[in-house]
Design brief:
Radius of gyration: 23 Å
Number of strands: 3
Number of domains: 1
Shape: rod-shaped
Number of helices: 3
Order of helices and strands: HHEEHE
């Protein structure tokens, strides 16, 4: 019996190339999105620690947080309406919520669109947290 040794067709090559490109780049794109979220959560934790000492999120704390996020490329930062702005005595709860725009275009949405997945619904990240106040008036 003879063996057919024609090699790859153009269609097979294109399918393989697209598949390999996806396998190589999807983890990188996903990691970029996770890094942006992780950086925002780290800044939330710093803000919570500062707010616990002050008893609330003061304008100085907001400015420091916005500057720290701008240094890593996150612009248009705002705070949720639930963010504690009035001093809370020791033992109370201080709540902080940060809203920030994605630092770059969402390549994750593009890749998910290629494979038929759901697109990202929002171009903003929202992280929230609470901490016990340590403020003594």
């Amino acid at each position: 019996m003879t063996k057919n040794e024609q090699g790859f067709s153009t269609i097979e090559f294109l399918i393989g190339a697209v598949l390999m490109t996806f396998i190589i780049f999807f983890p990188i794109v996903t990691q970029m999105q996770m890094h942006a979220i992780q950086s925002l959560e780290q800044e939330l934790n710093r803000t919570l620690q500062m707010a616990a000492v002050q008893g609330s999120v003061t304008p100085d704390i907001k400015q420091i947080t916005e500057q720290n996020l701008a240094d890593i490329g996150v612009e248009n930062v705002s705070f949720t309406p639930e963010t504690t702005s009035d001093p809370v005595e020791r033992g109370g709860t201080v709540h902080v919520g940060i809203i920030a725009e994605r630092p770059q275009e969402s390549m994750f949405s593009g890749v998910m669109g290629l494979i038929g997945g759901d697109d990202i619904e929002s171009d903003t990240f929202v992280v929230e947290g609470s901490i016990m106040s340590e403020y003594l008036p």
